[in-house]
UniProtKB/TrEMBL annotation:
Region (Disordered): 167-207
Domain Dienelactone hydrolase: 50-170
A Pfam entry, by short name: DLH
Keywords annotated in UniProt: Hydrolase
Protein name listed in UniProt: Dienelactone hydrolase
SUPFAM superfamilies: alpha/beta-Hydrolases
Signal peptide: none
Entry annotated with the keyword Hydrolase: yes
Keyword Hydrolase: yes
PANTHER family in UniProt: DIENELACTONE HYDROLASE DOMAIN-CONTAINING PROTEIN, DIENELACTONE HYDROLASE DOMAIN-CONTAINING PROTEIN-RELATED
Single GO MF descriptor: hydrolase activity
Length: 207
C-alpha cells in the first residue's frame, strides 16, 4: 500500500510537470508578431503602418485599424495595435501624416493635424490606403473590419463611417475644442451617417 501510494504521487507529479511544460510551450508560441508596412496613398504620399497579430491564432480573423492622436504614429498607437492583437484580432496602426511622422510638442502636433485635415479628400485617401493594407494581410478577414481612433483619429474614423468606409467604429475623442478653443479644420458640428451604413461608439471626455 505504501509503495503504491508513493508510485501514485510520483506519477501525479510527473503529469503536473508535463502539463506545466506544455502550457509554457504554448505561451512561448503565442508571441505577438509585429512588422512595419510601407505603402502609399492614392495621391502618392509615403505612409508607414505598424501591423500586429498573434501567430498562435490560426486562420483569418477580424481586423482593426488604429488611427493615432494628433501626435502622429507614436508608441501609444503601436501599443494599442499590440493590445488588440493579444485579444485575437489583426491590427494595424496607420499613418495619417506621412513617413511615420510624430511629435511630442503640441505646437507641432497642431501643425501636423491642420495640414492633414486641410484637404479632406487627401485624408480620406490616407485612411483608405491603410484600410486596404490591413485587408490584404493573410491573417485578416477582409469582410470583418473595424476602426478605432483617438482624438484626431476619432474624427478620421467617424468621417470614414459617415461615407461607409468603415462598418464598425469606436471613436475616442477628447474635448479639444471645448478646452482650447481650437476646432478641427472643417468642423462645423455633427454630421449624420447614412442609416444602416455603420455602427459607431463614441467615448467622450476631457481632462
Amino acid at each position: 500500500m505504501f509503495a503504491t501510494s508513493n508510485y501514485q504521487k510520483e506519477l501525479t507529479m510527473r503529469v503536473w510537470i508535463a502539463m506545466i511544460m506544455m502550457g509554457l510551450t504554448g505561451l512561448a508560441q503565442a508571441a505577438i508578431k509585429t512588422e512595419q508596412i510601407d505603402y502609399k496613398s492614392a495621391d502618392g504620399t509615403k505612409l508607414v503602418g505598424y501591423y500586429a497579430y498573434d501567430d498562435a491564432v490560426k486562420g483569418p480573423r477580424p481586423g482593426v485599424l488604429v488611427v493615432h492622436e494628433w501626435w502622429g504614429l507614436n508608441d501609444y498607437a503601436k501599443r494599442r495595435a499590440r493590445d488588440l492583437a493579444a485579444l485575437g484580432y489583426s491590427a494595424m496602426a496607420i499613418d495619417m501624416y506621412g513617413e511615420g511622422k510624430n511629435t511630442e510638442h503640441p505646437k507641432d502636433a497642431m501643425a501636423f493635424m491642420q495640414a492633414a485635415l486641410k484637404d479632406s479628400d487627401a485624408a480620406d485617401k490616407r485612411f483608405d490606403a491603410g484600410l486596404e493594407q490591413l485587408k490584404k494581410q493573410p491573417q485578416t478577414d477582409p469582410k470583418k473590419i473595424a476602426a478605432i481612433g483617438y482624438c484626431f483619429g476619432g474624427k478620421i474614423v467617424l468621417d470614414a463611417a459617415r461615407r461607409g468606409a468603415a462598418r464598425r467604429t469606436v471613436a475616442g475623442r477628447s474635448q479639444l475644442p471645448r478646452r482650447t478653443g481650437h476646432q478641427y479644420p472643417g468642423q462645423t458640428g455633427h454630421q449624420s451617417a447614412d442609416a444602416g451604413r455603420a455602427r459607431c461608439q463614441g467615448q467622450h471626455g476631457h481632462r
